[in-house]
Design a protein that fits this description.
Pfam families: AraC_binding (PF02311), HTH_18 (PF12833). By secondary structure, the chain is of the alpha+beta class. It has helices at residues 15-21, 92-104, 115-125, 130-149, 161-171, 180-187, 191-202, 206-224, 229-235, 241-252, 256-263, and strands spanning 2-9, 31-39, 42-46, 49-53, 57-61, 67-71, 79-86, 108-109. The protein has eleven helices and eight strands. A hairpin with a 2-residue loop joins strand 3 (42-46) and strand 4.
Length: 273
Amino acid sequence: MKILDVVFVYQMKEETEIRWHSRYHSHGKNEFELHYFIQGNASFLNDRTRFRIEPGTLFLTSPEIHHSIIVQDDDNPLSYYAVLIGTEDSDREIHRLLSIDLKSNRLYHLGTNYRFFFEEIKEKGLSANRALRQSAVHQLISFLYVLSGEEDFHFSDSRNSHIEKALRIMQNNITNNLELEDIAQRLGLSNSYFIRLFQQKMKTTPMKYFMKLKIEAAGAMLTSTDRTLLTIAQDLNFYSEFHFSRVFKQYTGTAPSIYRKQYLQFVDKEPDQ
């Protein structure tokens, strides 16, 4: 098993983005795809079956089966991760894990706090470092075991409701200035308790996580639109283009202009028929 590609699509708004990511397409033999939706509302067309997609849901598509994302609400744009998995005929255990989900044709309700997991899969799975790529593969295999382990497994419960709500607040305010006090107040928690609760679950502080969301959004804009660095900086409410570039490099290790050249997606290119 290997990870062939990982894509993060943030707030799909541009016409070219929608046309590319909503195309009706399939993948080759032994190629499976995971779609993890974190924001927005849409429908997922798998062959001839249409599923309702909501934030925090995951769907798995099988090889050579046509599928498409159908955007329904322009005022609530879609954000999601897509992971393309390649397998060999000899990967019998992997096929067994994947086939459990394919037979049931069901959505999994993971909650939106698996964003970090999929972001890590993206960063490691596309790394030039072989050890990191293998690490991502093993993380994904472990994830598939959890998915197939229980018939009605839910990844989030009432104990995580504060974190789930905090994540939604952050996602909905990517383009704004958001302070720690604002989030804690909306949750009805003290600042100190909210920080401690968030760190226990997400392994980072709330505001570091919020900045990471902004950088993820910036990365998506850089690789799927032709917006200038200044426009992106303004859209995401950074103080200046210089501030945006400095923070982006701090989080990714790469300057925005170089990142764009390395990961540019040609979303305006017509897909092969």
